Automatic annotation (TrEMBL):
ATP binds at residue 245. It comes from Ottowia beijingensis. This is Tyrosine--tRNA ligase. It holds the Pfam family S4. Belongs to the class-I aminoacyl-tRNA synthetase family. TyrS type 2 subfamily. Catalyzes the attachment of tyrosine to tRNA(Tyr) in a two-step reaction: tyrosine is first activated by ATP to form Tyr-AMP and then transferred to the acceptor end of tRNA(Tyr). Residues 353-414 form the RNA-binding S4 domain. It is found in: Cytoplasm. One of its GO terms (biological process) is tyrosyl-tRNA aminoacylation. GO terms for cellular component: cytosol.
Length: 414
């Protein structure tokens, strides 16, 4: 029978040390580490799961695998038996997170937020186990807070400390405007931790100020302060810039399996190991063993294929990952996939259509100017032959038109 002393100051077991190692895997910071170790030990001694919080604002309709770095950490902690809380910031999205911004973030409509929230929920459950996830919306307590409660909350933090935040500090000294409502964002995010009584909150490195606000407010409200765990921002396909749709170096988690698989294989050998640490569910021991094999002469492509199949299977299925591998192999040998879009186009004057218009009208290029650029780069094939003449006209008939390694269409001109 456990005594009060056993539970309040329990020993650190091997299992707790393993949980600590899993917590630290790939993370940027875990603060304070000694507090988290105590929480893990106390949880094991009492049998009470810890409350693991992650909040995401539904600012866009979908997410890419860079967003799943933090979700993966949630899943690792979930698999240790702890209670994960996936918080959708439907209220805080109305304010707009100023983190890393040099201008005020434009607000979304409530309709946009609701639609995006549904998409986020569906996509997050491709990583988290929905049966073991507490799904919450911060409008539950934020709406109920009211004006009186908001004034009391605002009184628990000073303007001077708020201005220590890097983005506010830089905007102020650059003469850029800061709206009063932006000061409310970190307060409301911190209050989420009070409402949920979280033991640890996860986020990207750009969220550190907001996460620390949660610790401060929990102390103000008489709660044990949460720990914070920040994860790095994942580099995109180029291996340089952080993954971003605007930089077109991303993999969307709703992309088709063939595209997802091929994009993972396109990353550098060096970047592959960082992706293994942040995206794979393999143990670090397995990853280190695989890295040693590659260092001893094994083809790094073997390891990259394993990673591509793991990621593709997570968001599709094992069968889809196998099919994507077969499709990639077929294409690398110059083959044509079994299933490609069928397009029917009307031939122009003289019963023919210029290759630029063929590419544009079949959806293989966004414009004729882009089509010409692709031809100049040697990236266009018709029936497996490289097109070098931008003035090429295709006569009536059926052709397999290819752009790059992954875009195909069977075009019929009539």
């Amino acid at each position: 029978m456990k005594t009060d002393t056993d539970i309040t100051n329990p020993p650190v077991s091997d299992r707790v040390r393993e949980a600590m190692a899993i917590s630290l895997r790939g993370c940027e910071e875990l603060l304070p580490q000694e507090d988290w170790l105590k929480k893990l030990a106390r949880s094991e001694a009492s049998g009470q799961p810890l409350r693991i919080k992650l909040g995401l604002d539904p600012t866009a309709p979908d997410i890419h695998i860079g967003h799943t770095v933090v979700l993966n950490k949630m899943r690792q902690l979930q698999d240790l038996g702890h209670q994960v809380i996936f918080l959708i910031g439907d209220f805080t999205t109305l304010i707009g997170d100023p983190s890393g911004r040099n201008t005020t973030r434009p607000p979304l409509t409530e309709e946009q937020i609701r639609a995006n929230a549904e998409t986020y929920k569906t996509q997050a459950f491709k990583v988290l186990d929905p049966a073991r996830t507490e799904l919450r919306y911060n409008s539950e307590w934020s709406d109920a807070l009211g004006t009186r409660g908001l004034i009391k909350l605002a009184a628990k933090y000073t303007v001077a400390r708020m201005m220590e935040r890097n983005d506010f500090h830089e905007r102020f000294h650059a003469g850029n405007s800061i709206s009063i409502h932006e000061f409310l964002y970190p307060l409301m995010q911190g209050y989420d931790s009070v409402a949920l009584k979280s033991d640890i909150e996860l986020g990207g490195t750009d969220q550190k100020f907001n996460l620390l606000m949660g610790r401060h407010l929990q102390q103000e409200y008489g709660q044990e302060p949460q720990c914070i765990l920040t994860m790095p921002l994942l580099e995109g396909l180029d291996g340089v810039e952080k993954m971003s749709k605007s930089k077109n170096n991303y993999i969307g988690i709703t992309e088709d399996a063939n595209t997802m698989f091929a994009k993972v294989l396109s990353i550098s050998d060096e970047l592959m190991w960082r992706w293994y640490t942040l995206l794979s569910f393999r143990s670090m021991a397995d990853i280190e063993a695989l890295q040693a094999e590659v260092g001893a002469g094994r083809n790094p492509k073997d390891a990259k294929v394993m990673l591509a199949k793991e990621i593709t299977a997570r968001f599709h299925s094992a069968a889809a990952a196998d099919a994507a591998e077969a499709d990639f192999t077929n294409r690398s040998k110059g083959g044509v996939p079994d299933e490609i879009p069928e397009v029917s186009l009307a031939a122009g004057e003289g019963g023919a259509l210029g290759i630029g218009l063929v590419l544009k009208q079949s959806g293989l290029a966004p414009s004729t100017s882009e089509a010409n650029r692709l031809i100049d780069g040697g990236g266009v094939r018709v029936d497996s032959g490289v097109v070098s003449d931008k003035g090429l006209k295709l006569k009536a008939g059926t052709y397999v038109v290819q752009v790059g390694k992954r875009k195909f269409a069977r075009v019929t001109l009539a």
